[in-house]
Structure formats: C-alpha cells, structure tokens
Amino acid sequence: MSQTIAVIDYGMGNLRSVAKAVEHVADAADKVLVTDNPDQILSADRVVFPGQGAARDCMAAISNHHLNQAILDAAKSKPFLGICMGLQVLMDFSEENGGTELLKLLPGQVRHFERDTEENGQRLKIPHMGWNKVRHIDNHPLWKDIPQDSRFYFVHSYYVEPQNREIIAATTDYGIDFTSAVARDNLFAVQFHPEKSARDGLILLRNFVQWDL
Amino acid sequence: MLAKRIIPCLDVDNGRVVKGVKFVDIRDAGDPVEVARRYDREGADEITFLDITASSDNRETIVHVVEQVASEVFIPLTVGGGIRTVDDVRRMLNAGADKVGINTAAVFNPEFVKEATDRFGSQCIVVAIDAKCVSADGEPLRWEVFTHGGRKSAGLDAIEWAKKMADYGAGEILLTSMDRDGTKIGFDLELTRAISRAVSIPVIASGGVGNLDHLVAGVKEGEADAVLAASIFHFAEYSVGEAKQYMAERGVEVRL
User: Fold this and answer.
1) Is the separation of the CB atoms in B158 and B146 below 8 Å?
2) Which CATH class name applies to B5-249?
3) Which residue segment(s) compose the domain that A128 sits in?
4) What is the CATH number of the domain that holds A194?
5) Scanning every residue of chain A, which has its alpha carbon at the shortest distance from the alpha carbon of B223?
6) Any A CB within 8 A of B149 CB
7) Each residue of B29-67: pLDDT tens digit?
8) Chain A neighbours among B 80-119 (CB < 8 Å)?
9) B197 in Cβ contact with A118 (< 8 Å)
10) In the annotation, is A193 catalytic?
11) What is the ipTM metric for this complex?
C-alpha cells in the first residue's frame, strides 16, 4: 500500500538530502512530499521534521510558516521523525541565542557543549562534527538491523537534556554522555543526520518508513 | 569517541575529475559521479569537490555533478571553488551540497563569511585557507595566507586569519599547505598543529599526502580533526578502506 511521507519545509536548512534519502528507502509507490502546508502535514501518513541553523531562527521560521500547531499535532498522532534541530526545538528551552523558548512538547533543556573540554590531551572541538558512536538504550524498532555503537554523522554545538530520562533512546560520548536520540510513543528524534550517515543512516530511515505503531 | 575523518578530494574541471601536481601537471582520471560512488563504497567519511573550472560559463557543470552525486551518495558533500556570493552558496546547497568551501572571496571580503554563516548556519560554511611558510631559516615559523593558487600573498598571518574566520562563524577550516601541495612528502605538521590549537572549530589538514603514514601523522602530530587527500586515493595507490584500516592499527579512532 502506498503512503505519503511529508518532509516539513520551513526554510531552515537543506531538505533536498533528507527528501532524497527518504525517497531512496521508500517504496516506489510512496510519495515523498516536501511541504510547508499544515494540511498536507496533517494528512500525511508519516512526517519527517528536519532542521539546521540557530534555535531562534528555527522558531521564527516555524512561526512565520504557521506550522507550530501542525508540528505539535503530527508529533502526537503519527510516525514522526525529528532530525537535528527537529529534535532540539521539541524541547522547552534552549540556551542558544541568549535563551530561546521552544515548542515545549518534550520537557527539558537544550545546552551548549562545555568549552575547552579535553580528551586524551586534545581539546574537543565545537561544533561536534563527524562520525560518532550511538549507543542504543532500548530495543526500539527504529534500531532494527543497526548494530550497537554504530557511527552516525553529527554536526551540532548544542545537545538535548530531557527531564524524563525514560525517553532517552540513545546516548553518545563527546566529553559527556549526551542524549543522541529520544523516543516517545509515535515520536522518534535524533541529533545526528541519518540522511548523511551512509548505510546505517539509510537503515534507520527505512525502519522509519516501515514503522508500524 | 568522535572518529577522525578521511576525506577524499576530487578536483573537477568542466565536469571531469583532474588533479594538478603543484597546479600545473594535470592528469584526467574520470567521471566525478563514478569516483564519488567508489569512495562512498570504500568508506569515505565525506567527499570534497573542488571546482577548478576557469570559465564562469561552465560553472553550471559542477551543479549537475553535485545533484547527481547527492541523489545516490548519502555522506556529507562539500563543494569549493569559485564561491563568491550568497547566491553561489545557495545554489550549491540546493544542488545537494552539505557544506560550501569559501577561499579567495573570504580574503577579499571577510564580511561574506559572516553573511553566509548568518544566512545558512555555521555548519555548512568551511573556510579554506591556503598557507605558505614565510619565515626565513632560523626565524620562528610563520605562515601567510596566499591566493591565486599560491602565487600571491594576501599579507595576512595564517593563524590570526583562522581565528578571525572562526569568530566570523566558520564551522570548519580546510587548511592547505601550499608548500606541500602536490609534493607527496606529507602535511606541514607544524602549520596544522598551530592552526588546530589556535581555533576551537575542526581543522581539516590538506596538501602533501603521499602515503598512509602521512595521514596518521596529520592526526597524531598535526592534531587535525580530519585529513584530506586527492591523488593517493585518486590513482588507486591506496583505497580509502586501506587508509582507515592502517590508521586504526596505529591507534587513530576511525569509522570502519
């Protein structure tokens, strides 16, 4: 049966690669729709919520596109995948840009990596950029066929700190153990970029387009 | 722990892959899409395209190359060469590039880097620095930023310039030693270490790789976060997979 997968487009970042990667793993009959239309997002079978850039710009862009309610509704009602800023903006509040109020779907904060942290005598660079290990905490269906500690591609300077630790689906070590994925009901959101993480990233996206709630 | 990245670089002229030795002796070695696919299969962590097309009339060829590669290769792609305006950046990102390298345009107009990072985010702006040692024998080492393929000094101290570009929002520095580029005698490790220690953003070492020990040294002694090489991968002297295996055996954290 064919399905529609909406990729939310609110003008923040490069959606082409997300859409291409989803198309690559979806059935030929599936429709991948890059859209900023709330009705299309709400009528889609699945929703991917990517994002890049600064927290304040992302929130402003979501608001300018009148997408706040559609994102919140979709995130509560159907398979929903947040990527990078699409994870961070689901939280309450970010330290970025002198403090930014977020969508407040998931209780918790977004924090900046500590500066001048050292590991093996070398200072850890910020942004955290490159391939790092993702340690699954649970047996979520989106981890199917992905070995424990597989590397995914990250690029970010802030990380999420959920209040409820039960939603943590994976952690990654970068000076600290930070939350690299969260899961709650129909929602799954990751700090890394599955669309840029070669084979394992494509497996995660395939698992998402096949995810039966 | 974060892996050190191995980045093959493809010099592209009019849509074809080439590699200049000291930017003069150019050999043709294939179709960029084919080469990118091969690097991806071998486990490259990213791929960088450097567009060296001289005529602006043919600039569109690189856009098509990026579009094609981005449709089937799902690792980060960087495009540099001839990026001068916010529109150039946008065109490359829309074609499917994840990062855009800014070199000469940053030297002539540093505000462009600010504008580009404000508009598209630091994560996609790589500032490329071509540096050359300018200190005389016996003097403390000093490097300056060069333009025009290493022929003209911009009169800027390379370390100060790297710091400034990081302050202006660059997400990463691609550092090429013009003394070493094309020589195959290894990275300028002193330069790489000096820049890597001076900035808090990642530094990619480039210029001079001739064997796999050079890659190891770039990370261990040069303290680079990533290493970029063209010809050793390009003429299949070593595969990217062999390079990573070799580095892992010598204690470098890599993605295998």
Assistant:
1) no
2) alpha beta
3) 4-209
4) 3.40.50.880
5) A122
6) no
7) 578 888 898 899 999 999 999 998 877 777 789 999 999
8) 93-98
9) no
10) yes
11) 0.92
